[in-house]
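queue> pop job 88
queue> type: inverse folding (structure -> sequence)
queue> payload:
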């Protein structure tokens, strides 16, 4: 696939679909970097990255002073989570407003963002921090580690695809998104991103197929509706 000069813009446009604000950074506190050219990654060490002056990073080791945190309830059994996901996806396909669609999509994103490993959760938080700081090479290294640890976790593949788009590796991004959809066929965000990448590459018929699959799950997404209509006319022609 030929790289277009605006791949960074494409990455920004797709980032919201890849990371539906599940609140992965809710725990912990921000702190200023004491050495602005390094980021400390547990299990990896101090990694040099280019940061702007005054940049702040997430630090799970330091928490603000205050009352003791409430005891965290144990995770729900996987089958219960699966039942909840099934119900949320069913409701998403029937959403009657953009507000309802957005709330359901974010709830689904929070379920997808759950891994089975505290180590992977920590690496994912670090990867998202690196993404937010524009340290794409560091983020890619972290996502590579996550995929090795959890090869069947679609969330990691979707996240790595986003970073690969930012780095201009559109072929690699497409492979990651296709793998994510094989693992979780209802990843409407990955399907929508696949549609965008395929359309950009001129694969109109395959792009149309991806958009249609995405809209079957999330029919209120306006940009996908417009893309489907545009490509339908191109691929199938006008009705006679």
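queue> result:
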């Amino acid at each position: 696939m030929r790289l277009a000069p605006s791949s960074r813009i494409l990455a920004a446009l797709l980032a919201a679909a890849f990371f539906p604000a599940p609140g992965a950074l809710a725990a912990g506190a921000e702190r200023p970097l004491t050495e602005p050219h390094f980021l400390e990654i547990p299990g990896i060490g101090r990694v040099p990255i280019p940061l702007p002056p005054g940049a702040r990073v997430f630090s799970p080791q330091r928490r603000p002073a205050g009352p003791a945190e409430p005891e965290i309830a144990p995770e729900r059994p996987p089958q219960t989570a699966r039942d909840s996901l099934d119900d949320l996806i069913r409701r998403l396909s029937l959403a009657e407003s953009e507000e309802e669609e957005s709330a359901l999509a974010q709830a689904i994103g929070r379920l997808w963002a759950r891994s089975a490993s505290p180590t992977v959760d920590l690496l994912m938080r670090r990867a998202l921090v690196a993404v937010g700081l524009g340290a794409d090479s560091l983020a890619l290294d972290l996502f590579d580690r996550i995929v090795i640890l959890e090869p069947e976790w679609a969330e990691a593949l979707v996240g790595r695809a986003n970073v690969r788009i930012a780095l201009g590796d559109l072929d690699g991004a497409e492979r990651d998104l296709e793998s994510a959809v094989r693992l979780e066929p209802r990843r409407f965000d990955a399907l929508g991103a696949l549609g965008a990448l395929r359309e950009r590459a001129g694969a109109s018929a395959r792009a149309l197929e991806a958009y249609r699959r995405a809209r079957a799950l999330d029919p209120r997404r306006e940009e996908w509706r417009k893309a489907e209509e545009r490509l339908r006319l191109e691929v199938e022609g006008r009705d006679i």
